[in-house]
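Title: [Solved] Cell envelope integrity inner membrane protein TolA 3D structure

Original question kept below for reference.
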Amino acid sequence: MLAEADALVDAEAEALVDADSEALVDAEADAEAEALVDAEAEALVLAEDDALVLAETDALVDADSDALVEAEAEALVLAEAEALVDAETDALVDAEAEALVDAEAEAL
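Solution (posted by the thread starter after getting help):
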């Protein structure tokens, strides 16, 4: 009878140890899985942040490029207009000078 009681106690103790071990393994697996999910979520957030920063940087570069192109185009238009005004001014001065020379020549 004592042997049977010892065997029963041993079996119950082994069952408790097995249950505790299984619970511990499950808890460790759950913790590892949760840590992995957290790490993947953080990596995803960082990747999305990086993508957003790159998109914003591209947009700023595009805007700066557009502004630069517009400024260069405006400068070119102004330079062409100034060149035309200079050419017309030169032509007018030449015409007035020629008219003055002709008038002086006629007066002589």
